[in-house]
């Protein structure tokens, strides 16, 4: 029994487009990647114990989350690029939708410029407020220093005089107390002499004037 005619490989290759070849190549690459993943998973499953898996699980979870985040950010960036490319292509056209889109774009640009101006004014105002606060703190510090200097100056100016007058006053009071005691002793001596001698001091004007200066001096009959 004769075999049937072999398929013409050259004819099949001629009918295959480059896009089909790239698609087949991508499919083969994906299949190889899946086989490699399954093979590595089988190796890890055979060689990894439960304790090691539990120990390494947080690292794998963290790595998986990082991959998810990177994929999300890349997809978002790609979508933005596609959107801006589509908007740019649309703005090149001359129809009603392009005019409306241009109006919205101009309005957005104007609002962005206005926002930037407001932000600049806000920063300038904040800088002015900061400068005023710094000047206020500096004035407060200088005022405190001046008040301290005034207090020290007044203390240096008044303190010696007060101590001087206080010392003089204490010395005067001590002298007065001393002479008071001497005066009392003299009065007592004079009083004793007059009483002992029984002198009639009322008959003598000078003696009478002297005795009248004495306190509580008895009058003799």
Automatic annotation (TrEMBL):
Species lineage: Eukaryota, Metazoa, Chordata, Craniata, Vertebrata
Stretches assigned to the Centromere protein H C-terminal domain: 20-215
Keywords attached to this entry: Centromere, Chromosome, Coiled coil, Kinetochore, Nucleus
Any coiled-coil regions, as ranges: 115-152
GO MF annotation list: kinetochore binding
UniProt-listed GO biological process terms: chromosome segregation; kinetochore assembly; mitotic spindle organization
GO cellular component assignments: kinetochore; nucleus
Primary localization class, coarse: nucleus
Family in the record: Belongs to the CENP-H/MCM16 family.
Cellular localization per UniProt: Chromosome, Centromere, Kinetochore; Nucleus
Top-rank lineage group of the source organism: Eukaryota
Provenance organism: Solea senegalensis (Senegalese sole)
Protein name: Centromere protein H
